[in-house]
Amino acid sequence: MFVIINALTSIARSKGRNILMGLVVMAVAAAACVALGIRHAARQAETDGLAQLTITGTISLDRQAVMSQLQSDTTTEASDPGAMGDSLRAALAQYPDLTLDQLLAYADSDRVAGLRYSGSISLDATGDVQAVSTESSTEAADQTVTTGMDQWGGGFGGGAGGPGDFQVFDGRSLGDLTVTGYGSQEAMTEFVSGASQIVDGAMIDLAAADDDCLVTDEFAAFNGLAVGDALTLANPAAADQTYTCDITGLYSNQGSSTTGGSGPVLRFATAQDPANQVIVSYPTLRAVVTLSGDQATTTTDANGNTVSTALSPTIAGTFVFASPADFEAFQQELTAAGLPAVYQLTSTDLNNYEASLVPLRNLSSFAATLLWIVLGVGAVIIVVLTIFNIRERKYEIGVLTAVGVAKPKVALQFVAEVGVVALLALIVGLGVGAAAAPPLADHLLSDQVAQQQAQQTAQEQSFGRPGGSDPGGGNAGGPVLSGGTVGRWPSASQAVAYLDQINASLDLAVVGQVAAIGLGLIVVASAAGVVSALRYDPLTILANRS
Q1: pLDDT band at 61 (very low <50, low <70, confident <90, very high)
Q2: Which residues, including other chains, have CB under 8 Å from residue 438's CB and lie 6 or more apart?
């Protein structure tokens, strides 16, 4: 009891020094609350976001890897581009698009939660039905297609409107409509997201080969079609091969827009217009492709390439995973299963999610750095204050030990003084930190987001895209090859939805960590005080009082 009473008396007697120590501990506690609150909230936000994320992945051919492999293996001189082009075509022919059977076999893995797949073919409208376009039919018929664009196999060839004329791109015949067959409702991502929706009629049965179809309301209005009408489509490579489907529903597509165009990619651009997309079930699409193969004829073009009138579908398969660990494990399984290294498994979801976390992780790293700096500076200041306090009270130590108070009790008095001051300051610091953490975390995170967006905008402007966005909605008007499929030009900037708000309020875990930090500071300061107090000899202190 003597030690406690003497410690409290000493605290009251040395108000200035103890207030300074209390302010240091309070500042350390408040800063620790903010830093730990930010780090804990960042980890929780990352975990929660990942739990809500639907992780999907696709297998595609890395053409750059094929080219690199060819350049490392070939003995062809770089000065002979024609020979290199022939070698590249031959190399790409060795790695065709994966078939649906292959995708289904890979999807049988325990790591895969599901497979969403679809197939697309290009067909021509017949009779009075026309694809939606700003060009008149006369203008379309006058368009011609230049040859020689066959670097990916097939190229463009023929005319764009005459009987029997057709275009071949990447080995596939091009019509003015795109027919897509879906294998499941989940594969219809635009309907799932709400970008497309049925506005009239009913949804088709995706499991039946019943020749039912959906067309856009824009396409129906352009051609005077309605639910219940029959739509007859033709093979662009063989106009006498026709396929009739019944329109069971009309759907709106927010991406629908009339596509004009001219020159060699007129028909390609028209087929890629969202307004000219016809939707069927995958069994229906497969039946059409099978019928086309049964009726196919083959010819040889001027370049010696074999051209078939059979429809060649483009298969798109998307794997669904329950966790990033499953995604990574599936990558290893694909390699073990013998999938060539030039095929790659990629996930746009994970890439976008990782990009969205950049400001949050920057803030978390900043908070960790701040925490270590504050702890280091705070510990040094507290130790220095404790040592000076002991040195100024050497005579008190000498008197106490001279009258019979054991040195451990004297040291315990200084420990009690530091402990009481630090405990009170720690409680106040917790309150200040709890109040300051949420708004300060949001403000710092918003600054990080603003910096990241400014950096992205500056990068886009470096590429000549002021504002960092694509006013054209991601379609610059031309074809792009990706993994052997025909698509659109990549958008100028894929906007990342950065996480710009977190819940940095304190919970028991953070309070416990701050309390542990406070206890650590008390132990460090007390240890310094004990060492200083025990090293003094009472007789020497009293003898040298002067």
Answers
A1: confident
A2: 37, 503, 504, 505
